[in-house]
Amino acid sequence: MRFVDEFRSGDVARQIAERIAGLVEPGRHYKVMEVCGGHTHAIYKHGVEDLLPPEIELVHGPGCPVCVIPMGRQDDAIAIAERPEVIFTTFGDMVRVPASHGSLLDAKARGADVRMVYSPLDALKIARENPDRQVVFFAIGFETTTPSTALTLLRARAEGIRNFSLFANHVTIIPAIRAILDSPDLRLDGFIGPGHVSTVIGLRPYRFIARDYDKPVAVSGFEPLDVLQGVYMVMRQLASGRNEVENQYTRVVREEGNPRALRAIAETMELRTSFEWRGLGFISQSALKLRDEFADWDAEVRYELPGVRVADPKACQCGEVLKGVIKPWECKVFGTACTPDRPIGTCMVSSEGACAAYYNYGRFARRRGREAEIAGLEPVVREPASA
Amino acid sequence: MEPRQPAPAVAPSQRSEGEVLDAIERRRRRPHVKLMDKQITLAHGAGGKSSHTLTQTVFLKELRNPLLEPLGDSALLQPNGGGGPRLAFSTDSFVVKPLFFPGGDIGELAVNGTINDLAMAGGRPLALSAAFILEEGLATDDLSRIAASMGAAAERAGVPVATGDTKVVERGKADGLYISTAGVASVNRGFELSPAAIRAGDRVLVSGTIGDHGMAIMIARGELELEVDLESDTAPLHELVAALLDATGEVRCLRDPTRGGVATVLNELALTTEVGIVLDEAALPVRPEVSGACEILGIDPLYVANEGKLVAVVAPHASDAALAALRSHPLGREAAVVAEVRPDPPGMVLLDTAFGGSRVVDMLAGDPLPRIC
Ligand code: SF4
């Protein structure tokens, strides 16, 4: 399992960083959005920003699956989890997301049977092992996780497992990118496209970004070198005035994506007319629900849900953060009322959320960079300016 | 030409980035006074921020006394009002699931765990106690196996289990069994091991690969479907400690990076002594199996529990001697110097990444990791 090391080499990183610096037009400021939360996480965890020239700003995008689930859906999830017959299974991150009355972890402490799993197949296994209970899986995520949900559903039907259902919250990345491009708040120079999503959907869906909005895209992998290389590819396009969809992640992403996964999704799910995204509001055709043939496995059909749209807490500016309009630290409650141990918004919960990544990893390095920039010095470890 | 940028829909905070970060640091270093949570969640047992807050706001608040206050791995008692050797006194409970795992079981863990807490005070463990909470329905064969492995561990360490207690609870009220051990050790070295002795320039050593125990348990739980050969590192460390302390008198302080891992221990040290600690990612000894599994699970090995490793802070010029002493002992073969103590930024742990960047290493925020010890 040593494979990761070759994508983290400090020497190679320095070489790419030099090439990036060489492409910077003096006096120009660049804003490049990394769409995916996995990138945001890698950027902070490995200190990628430390290697970029100050002219290049990475803007964190909406591709964090935990972050975009609105409060109302989380309330619905907790309502299902609190039914006595239900074993509610979920990815670990979701248990700490605050809803109207506490999180799933609080519901668990009150007695709900909430179990953390690593894949929907684990949830199906729990259903097999507990035939007298109802097992519900909290399905979230972009096209990255949708195929495994779809395959689990097909497996459940093939095996005739009836005590299993899905609370489907799968969202699609393209409408969110379009919403951001149409938003008047933000001027972006280019995009680092999501790697894992693209293994499923391929490269074609991004073409409108280059064609209709004149922005370069580099679909990139999740190792820090991938991200750095992605920035380089975007910068190279900008320097030569090109707007194309380039593929940095050729070792995994194919032009046409993964037809088998796409078929499984199409067989089991269809687009909702509209779906609420936290902070971004309702976006049409941006999420998936189970097809009618799978109603027996659909938790939304099976259980009475509150289904109430709940406004985000007043103080919460997750929407602005998800759109990249403000930096995490610009949110009024960042680091004071909202911290990773007591989050108000979703971006502070998931390790892929921009607020959590910045809070957990970025606090000091960012300051150091800023101070060096202001002083025109090489970055050095220094005491905070005001103690 | 720069297109004009419209104002964002919500006015952002008026503070500058530096001010925001300063405010966070001040807040982070302020002692917790009130527990905000209405009920206990698994996060309170994970060893990170929530555990820390619980200890501060409930236990330290209600039980405060000079022996408890340092919140070290064990308390130091001075019997007979002075002179003579002091006693280190410590306790630990074990709720690990599964009871048996590659490299050990709950019994061996319970013996080694308390020995290690005592060893971190530089003590020679004298005796242990063991209290058992058994669940109705537990197989007596399993109990015998666990007791036998406790006996073997105690014998190997040369520390007897001198007293004990047994309770049985109804089915469903305990996961097979829980064990609680306590122990005393005599401490008669001429110098005191204490975080207060830490100075800028000191080096931080770990005695071997990190994260082995926690990852072995997570894999043994069988929920991950990962096929990885990995054993718990559970081992008694008092002899390794003795070898280290014999080699150099300039060990500042020792810690046992169990639950919460090396990152949590270093954060506690940085916070209590107002120093900065800067880790070198490339120097951290991590088994490839552990880093691979961590990568897949999105966990950082710095936060994963160890049961047979120590963290030592030593004076700069003693670091070579300390490293050599650790490496010459079978339990310290893969010891390494992993961090340096700096005056800035006070109270923070940073990491220079192998990639060439740097980042903060904070205390773990409420991750409900499975029961690992
Ligand atoms: S600091 Fe908290 S409330 Fe503000 S944007 Fe981030 S997660 Fe949302």
**How many separate domains of chain B?**
3
CATH architecture of the largest domain in chain B: Alpha-Beta Complex
Strand arrangement within the widest β-sheet of chain B reads: 9-11-8-12-10-13-14
User: Count of helical segments of chain B?
Assistant: 9
The main pleated sheet of chain A reads as: 5 strands, parallel
**Which regions of chain A contain 5 or more consecutive residues with pLDDT less than 50?**
369-387
Number of strands of chain A: 13
Largest sheet of chain B: 7 strands, mixed
By secondary-structure content and strand pairing, the structural class of chain A works out as: alpha/beta
Give the count of helical stretches of chain A: 14
What does the overall shape of chain A look like?
globular
* Major protein interface: A-B, 73 and 64 residues
First-last Cα distance of chain B: 61 Å
Rounded mean pLDDT of chain A is 87
What's the total number of strands of chain B?
14
What are the bound molecules?
iron/sulfur cluster
The CATH superfamily label of the largest domain in chain B reads PurM-like C-terminal domain
CATH architecture of chain A: 3-Layer(aba) Sandwich
Describe this structure in a few short sentences:
The complex is a heterodimer of chains A (387) and B (373). Chain A has 387 residues and is of the alpha/beta class. Chain A has helices at 10-23, 37-46, 71-81, 104-109, 120-129, 146-159, 173-182, 195-201, 207-213, 224-239, 259-268, 299-302, 318-323, 354-375; strands spanning 30-36, 56-63, 86-90, 113-116, 134-141, 164-170, 190-193, 217-219, 245-247, 269-271, 274-277, 281-284, 288-290.
Structure in words:
- The complex is a heterodimer of chains A (387) and B (373).
- Chain A has 387 residues and is an alpha/beta fold.
- In chain A, 38% of the residues lie in helices and 16% in strands.
- Chain A has a five-stranded parallel sheet with strand order 2-1-7-8-9.
- In chain A, α6 (146-159) crosses α11 (259-268).
- The N and C termini of chain A lie far apart (43 Å).
- In chain B, 30% of the residues lie in helices and 21% in strands.
- Chain B is globular, with a radius of gyration of 22 Å.
- The chains are: A alpha/beta (387), B alpha+beta (373).
- The interface between A and B is large, with 73 and 64 residues.
- Iron/sulfur cluster binds at residues 316-318, 321, 328, 331, 333-334, 338, 344-345, 347-348, 355 of chain A.
